[in-house]
């Protein structure tokens, strides 16, 4: 018997095998189905998904044989992995110098014929084989059977790669969950620790204005105090916006059916601006299935932005709905001052603002809307109102 050679890339091969986290796992239907099919196509009583470890070959699936592993020195598969691109075929093991006195040949399971297709990773590391075994010598292993065995080996690798990707994705998701929790905790602490002195500053500015107003006349100090108060208001609004953004991005998406017109009317009602908003809804008497919480957040931000930046006593808002096979489409427009086209990309970037004069304009609102829409797999874009009049015009698309 000739022992199998150790591949030159053994260290990296073993690391590749470990990356699948497959050794010593329970049987799985996906792999058992492949060995069953392989045995059937190749007309053999046995078929294995064999993974070659440092000192053994372990069977993820074993059709027609009870054993779950054998020593590596005895393994036919340990020879097969030395040629990652080639099918390894032994037609008559009893007449082969490498195997004629191998205990797997002379005793149970009585291997006489062996054909193994290496399981090779994208990086070129052969971690095992999909093999078929017969207790009789054979010289009639057809080209069709060889091609089928290779194709099925590719399916085994596809299952293994999918497994590795799922494990990697789960690990990434867990790490992101931890980091998000840490970020959320940090933001809460930061907001709490900074809001208190901000409130103190705002109160102090108010006291100075009230108690020392007679000393501030005809000086620039009053203007400076207004600037301080303005900046304090901006920071306080920013904290609220950041906390809202983090909460939204950490929330799970829950999908449900809801009525568009009912929900938008409820948003306006809860905003407390029913007397200053002239709302026009077109084709919104429809039920859709999406994230209701996200829908409310999107349109609440849009409506409050329209009111916040309006230069009119009554803010006109028009929302039009349509749908197609793949998604829901909304257009949103108002009669406000609008946004110059050169700023259309800028307004969706966090903390980008068109003016620092308004303490409510933190540059978080539209960035939050875009983040929600993209989290749902949708899109939002700015455009010109069809009637060419001043005002914003958003095209929003959400997937079904």
Span between N and C termini? 64 Å
Count every helix, treating DSSP H or I runs of 4 or more residues as helices: 10
Helix and strand sequence = HHEEEHEHEEHHHEHEEHEEHEE
> Portion of residues in helices?
40-55%
Care to count the β-strands? Answer: 13
Strand order of the largest sheet: 3-2-1-6-5-4
Instruction: Please state the average pLDDT score.
Output: 89
Please give the radius of gyration in angstroms: 34 Å
What shape does the CA trace take? elongated
Low-confidence stretches: none
Structural class: alpha+beta
Q: How much of the residues is beta strand, in percent?
A: 15-25%
Largest sheet, strands/sense/barrel: 6 strands, antiparallel
Summarize this, please?
This protein has 400 residues and is of the alpha+beta class. The protein contains ten helices and 13 strands. Helices cover 44% and strands 20% of the residues.
Give an account of the 3D structure.
Keywords: Phosphoprotein. The chain has a 6-stranded antiparallel beta sheet. A hairpin with a 5-residue loop joins β2 and β3. By secondary structure, it is of the alpha+beta class. The two termini are about 65 Å apart. Helix content is about 45%, strand content about 20%. α7 packs parallel to α10.
């Amino acid at each position: 018997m000739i022992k199998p050679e150790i591949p030159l890339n053994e260290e990296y091969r073993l690391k590749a095998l470990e990356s699948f986290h497959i050794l010593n796992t329970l049987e799985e239907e996906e792999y058992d189905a492949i060995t069953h099919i392989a045995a059937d196509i190749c007309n053999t009583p046995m078929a294995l998904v064999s993974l070659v470890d440092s000192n053994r070959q372990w069977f993820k699936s074993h059709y027609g044989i009870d054993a779950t592993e054998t020593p590596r020195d005895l393994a036919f598969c340990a020879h097969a992995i030395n040629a990652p691109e080639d099918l390894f075929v032994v037609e008559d093991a009893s007449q082969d110098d490498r195997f004629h006195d191998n205990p797997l040949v002379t005793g149970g399971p009585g291997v006489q014929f062996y054909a193994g297709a290496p399981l090779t990773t994208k990086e070129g590391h052969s971690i095992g084989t999909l093999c078929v075994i017969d207790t009789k010598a054979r010289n009639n292993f057809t080209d069709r059977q060889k091609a089928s065995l290779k194709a099925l080996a590719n399916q085994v690798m596809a299952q293994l790669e999918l497994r590795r990707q799922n494990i990697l994705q789960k690990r990434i998701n867990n790490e992101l969950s931890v980091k998000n929790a840490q970020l959320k905790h940090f933001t809460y602490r930061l907001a709490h620790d900074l809001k208190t002195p901000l409130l103190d500053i705002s109160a102090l500015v108010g006291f100075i204005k009230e108690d020392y107003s007679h000393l501030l006349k005809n000086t620039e100090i009053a203007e400076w105090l207004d600037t301080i108060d303005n900046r304090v208001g901006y920071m306080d609004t920013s904290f609220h916006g950041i906390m809202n953004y983090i909460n939204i991005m950490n929330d799970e998406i829950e999908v449900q059916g809801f009525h568009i017109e009912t929900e938008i009317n409820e948003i306006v009602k809860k905003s407390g601006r029913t007397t200053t908003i002239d709302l026009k809804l077109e084709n919104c008497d429809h039920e859709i299935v999406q994230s209701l919480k996200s829908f409310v957040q999107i349109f609440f931000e849009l409506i409050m932005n329209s009111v916040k930046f309006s230069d009119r006593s009554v803010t006109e808002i028009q929302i039009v709905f349509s749908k197609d096979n793949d998604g829901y489409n909304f257009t949103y427009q108002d009669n406000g001052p609008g946004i110059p086209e050169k700023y259309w990309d800028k307004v969706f970037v966090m903390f980008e603002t068109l003016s620092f004069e308004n303490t409510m304009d933190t540059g978080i609102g539209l960035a939050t809307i875009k983040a929600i829409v993209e989290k749902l797999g949708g899109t939002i874009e700015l455009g010109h109102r069809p009637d060419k009049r001043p005002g914003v015009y958003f095209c929003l698309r959400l997937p079904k």
